[in-house]
Amino acid sequence: MVYTNVGRYHAGINVYREHEILAEIAGGLPATLPSEKEFFNPVISDFMAKYIVQGWGW
C-alpha cells in the first residue's frame, strides 16, 4: 500500500519531466512547434517549410 502511494506521488510530480528534457535538448522547438493547420496555410506554408522542415537538414 505504501509503495503504491509513493509510486502515484512520484508519477504525479514528475509527469512532465520528459517534456522538459526534450525541450532542453531540442532548444524549445517541440514546446512551441506550430500546429498542422499552420503547415497547410497557403500564406505561411513556404516559411514553415523553409525554417522548420528544411532548417533541420532532413
Q: How do you describe this structure in short?
A:
This protein is 67% helix and 0% strand. It contains 5 helices and no strands.
Account of the 3D structure:
By secondary structure, this protein is mainly alpha-helical. The protein has helices spanning 2-13, 17-26, 29-32, 36-39, 45-53. It is built from five helices and no strands. The N and C termini lie far apart (49 Å).
Q: Main β-sheet, in a few words? A: none
Name the structural class.
mainly alpha
Low-confidence stretches: none
| End-to-end CA span | 49 Å
Helix-strand topology string: HHHHH
Rg, rounded, reads 18 Å
The total of helices stands at 5
Q: Tell me roughly what share of residues is in helical segments.
A: 55-70%
Strand content: under 5%
Mean pLDDT across residues: 78
- Global outline: elongated
* Annotation, overall tally of beta strands: 0
Question: What are the salient characteristics of this protein?
Answer:
single chain, 58 residues, mainly alpha
